[in-house]
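Action item from last week, closing it out:
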Amino acid sequence: MLALFLALVAVLELARGLPLIPAFAEMNASGLRSLRVIRRSGVSERLKERAMQLLARRLFAASIRAGRLLAVTAAPLLIVLAFEWASGAVMPWQQRLWVMPLTLGYALVRWQIAPALKRRVQPR
């Protein structure tokens, strides 16, 4: 149970520390740019095709980057689950259910309560 909790804490910390959301936002922006190019009227098809090739490369690079960041973020949890499965020591669902409020409590204290207390205590 402790290993699963620590893995989830690591996932939370990595998700906050790595530029995961900006990577997916970049991928979304690239896709929206592609849609605008396709919908544009008054532009030759040849120019649209060239622009789409460039945008497809950018979208591919952005999706690879976002996928790598997502894999790195999920790696601690996947490793713990793989070791648990390989060792045959699968936790009962009741124990797994207890990990959720512990992890949510950690996230609440770490990113909501602690910063609020820090702002309140700082001298002016």
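Closing note: DSSP finds four helices and no strands in the chain.
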